[in-house]
UniProtKB/TrEMBL annotation:
Keyword set includes Cytoplasm: yes
Gene3D superfamilies registered for this protein in UniProt: alpha/beta hydrolase
Protein name, entry field: ABHEA protein
Designated gene of the protein: Abhd14a
Organism: Calyptomena viridis (Lesser green broadbill)
GO cellular-component term (any): cytoplasm
Pfam family, one: Abhydrolase_1
Length: 141
């Protein structure tokens, strides 16, 4: 993502609107229609504003202890109708509880806690992570 890792910061992603436009362009360039957006950690800065503005373009949303959840209100979350699987590791005691407290306002959500895993639950317990993810994907229309 622009501005993370070794990527230079792009002017367009400085604002939430710019991050929504960036993600929308990526999805268009890839030719994806109604994808499931998986958003671990820092990618929450891109995925959350996109979900709130253009969530109807998604078949599903999978936040994995994303940052930025406190930037939005319970009412904003309640308006989202995108099926959501909230995932986090049981050893992630800092970011995950905060994210869950905010994301639980999404009306179409379910929560899976990945056992024996920390913040990067997909790395710590890939089998548990994939089991939860595939179960969610199978239930989507």
């Amino acid at each position: 993502l622009p501005g993370y890792g070794d990527s230079p910061l792009a002017e367009m992603v400085v604002t939430a609107q710019g991050r929504v436009a960036f993600l929308d362009r990526v999805l268009q360039e890839l030719g994806l229609q109604r994808p499931v957006l998986i958003s671990p950690s820092m990618s929450g800065r891109f995925a959350l504003p996109f979900l709130l503005v253009q969530g109807d373009q998604l078949a599903g949303f999978v936040p994995i202890a994303p940052v930025g959840t406190k930037d939005y209100t319970a009412e904003q979350y309640r308006r989202v109708q995108t099926p959501t699987l909230i995932l986090y590791g049981d050893h992630d005691t800092v970011l995950a509880p905060q994210a869950l407290q905010n994301l639980q306002h999404l009306p179409e959500h379910r929560v899976v806690v990945v056992p024996g895993a920390g913040h990067a639950c997909y790395l710590d317990n890939p089998e548990g992570f994939h089991r939860a993810l595939l179960g969610f994907l199978r239930q989507l229309k």
